Amino acid sequence: MAYPLVAVTGIGAKATAHAVESKTRLLATALPAETSYVYAPDGKTVLTMFYEEYRQYTKLADISPNMQQAIVAAEDNRFYQHHGVDPKGVARAFVANARSSGVSQGASTLTMQYVRMALRDSASTPMEVQEATAQTPIRKIKEMRMAVDLEEELSKEDILERYLNSAYFGHRAYGIYAASEIFFSKTPKELTPVEAATLAGLVKSPSQYDPASSDQKGATERRNYVLNNMAQLGYLSPDSAEAAKTEPIRLRLTYPPNDCASVPQEWNSWGFLCDYLKNWWSAQPAFGENRLQRIDKLRRGGYRIVLSMDPKIQAAAEKNVGTKGNTGSPFANGIVVSEPGTGRVKAMAVNRTYSLNLDENPLSSNPEAGPNVKANYPNTVAPLMGGGDLPGYQAGSTFKMFPMLAALDAGMTLNTTFNAPHSYRSEIYDGWQPSNASGAMSGTQTMWSGFGKSVNTYFVWLEEQVGAERAVRLAEQLGLRWRTDVDRDHASPAKANKWGAFTLGVSDATPLEMANAYAAIAADGRYCEAIPVNAIYNRDGTPATFTTAGGIEREVAKPRCRQVVSADAARAATDAARCPTGDTPAKGGCGGWSTADSVRGTVGRPVAGKTGTTDSTRSAWFVGYTPELAAASFISDPDNPFNAVGDGQSQIPIAAVSNTLRDALKGKPARDFVPPSDRIVG
């Protein structure tokens, strides 16, 4: 009988003393995994949560005394008398187990149980999990030693608080906050003696004593056992305990949301930004060395995440791409709105329902998809607007911005003139011979008129002058990434300078990338990485931070910006980009007509932008911006890029952007663009 007690301070402890002391110090400061919450921009409305173990750490002062007393009565009625190990309990269990030649009776105190849970929760490998929970004498001896040491480090109240926040109660409820909410839809502070006894009874065997099962007999018997112990310990009067035992177990079950698919239906479209948040998070070194570690942090780190989405702008975007009644088309019409100067995503909407359920979706329009492959509509969770691993869609003439901006930044002027023929043979691009969309585009053009009319031959020639590789690298600096083998090959250092068709937008891009690239031009050439959050707080309420390569500590949610081109070059590009929209540039003329001359009248304020269509109008784009907002919209079939949307639908992205900018900025004073200098006008 004396052996287990001697072992705690004897041979077994001596052999592992250093390791045990080290782990004890770790457990004295370690906290259990905690649920991360995602909030709307008001910082109050919960949109969803991320967790593997639903848990929210709760201070002991916010836990009902009924619950504190019930857990002691259920698991360790000598908790306040022992110092981590209960000699009487150990001796009793040792004798019982020796007689049964097995484990028939436990002797774990609350402190020992907490040590086991904390070791399990802090384990980083399967082997550590196995060591923390293995039913072996040496593990038990280490556990005893650590419990004794821990009681020298922490008060009884600290240990009880940590235990109640670590225990598993079933139904994915880890900790008392989750258990109170899931079983009774209330906070731990509101638990009655009957409810507390019910929850305390679960810890021994959550499945065996589950009160949510069809038969509550086991749960009721276990609850009554706890109530009896509470009376014996003086926590309840005998009469109160007897009265409580006659009450039925009344549950109010709640199933907390988890992940993006649980975003409330009234904010369904917000699921796409939530999904982008996950993809963005998984790429942030601040949260781990690889994707798995980062997602684990999201699900276990107890963060408070405030999204960057603006409800007014999001509502405008949803209305203008038809998220409520236009989801039954193979052609996806999506829009992303970005904030110049911060990169924060203010809206993300597409004519799809964010849902994992594809049962009612028709078969894919792609003949190469194979049999029984579902289409992406009306339901999908695919990142159709960017931020994931999909390549995007050919963006057409919206890419003409990149060689123009590169030329301006290299010292060329807006008045750079070229007599653009209908068809142009390029010797630099090995005899490649593109042509314009119509004969009306031929003739002498400047950057203003060439951009406003989208003159292919002018921009192929301009790209030759500045060098295609320079335009490609600038696009990369503005956030574009090449996700197909073909695009990566053409963008490679060995081939980029021969990529003549780059200016015509043959590369795939996402609306997220294009909105953010054009936002940099609106911000006088200052590019900011796309970011889906306004704030990220650690579990202790402090902002989440990371350390830069230069050793500077920065908040993860702060904008990350850099100057990519000169402010004058960006202002000059904007002046030319006013021509496609029907706006009037500050310094030049647009040549009499443009490709989207209705935009200025719709938006009702200074606006710049560019249309884009691909061969046979397989996809159509418009990217537009004001000094305050940049928006990119597309229409295409994500399943089958050869399923042409047709000329008749090419106006849809133009309308989506112009109407969204109008609605989003309604009631705000109009701001004009800063004009370029006379030097860059030429």
Automatic annotation (TrEMBL):
InterPro entries: Beta-lactam/transpept-like (IPR012338), Glyco_trans_51 (IPR001264), Glycosyltr_51/Transpeptidase (IPR050396), Lysozyme-like_dom_sf (IPR023346), PBP_transglycosylase (IPR036950), PCN-bd_Tpept (IPR001460)
Domain Glycosyl transferase family, residue spans: 46-230
Coiled-coil stretches noted in the UniProt entry, renumbered to this chain: none
GO CC terms in record: outer membrane-bounded periplasmic space
Keyword vocabulary terms for this entry: Carboxypeptidase, Cell shape, Cell wall biogenesis/degradation, Glycosyltransferase, Hydrolase, Multifunctional enzyme, Peptidoglycan synthesis, Protease, Transferase
Organism superkingdom: Bacteria
Domain Penicillin-binding protein transpeptidase intervals: 335-639
GO molecular function: penicillin binding; peptidoglycan glycosyltransferase activity; serine-type D-Ala-D-Ala carboxypeptidase activity
Matching Pfam families: Transgly, Transpeptidase
Annotated GO biological process: cell wall organization; peptidoglycan biosynthetic process; proteolysis; regulation of cell shape
Reaction equations catalysed: [GlcNAc-(1->4)-Mur2Ac(oyl-L-Ala-gamma-D-Glu-L-Lys-D-Ala-D-Ala)](n)-di-trans,octa-cis-undecaprenyl diphosphate + beta-D-GlcNAc-(1->4)-Mur2Ac(oyl-L-Ala-gamma-D-Glu-L-Lys-D-Ala-D-Ala)-di-trans,octa-cis-undecaprenyl diphosphate = [GlcNAc-(1->4)-Mur2Ac(oyl-L-Ala-gamma-D-Glu-L-Lys-D-Ala-D-Ala)](n+1)-di-trans,octa-cis-undecaprenyl diphosphate + di-trans,octa-cis-undecaprenyl diphosphate + H(+); Preferential cleavage: (Ac)2-L-Lys-D-Ala-|-D-Ala. Also transpeptidation of peptidyl-alanyl moieties that are N-acyl substituents of D-alanine
Similarity remark: In the C-terminal section; belongs to the transpeptidase family.
The name this protein goes by in its record: Membrane carboxypeptidase (Penicillin-binding protein)
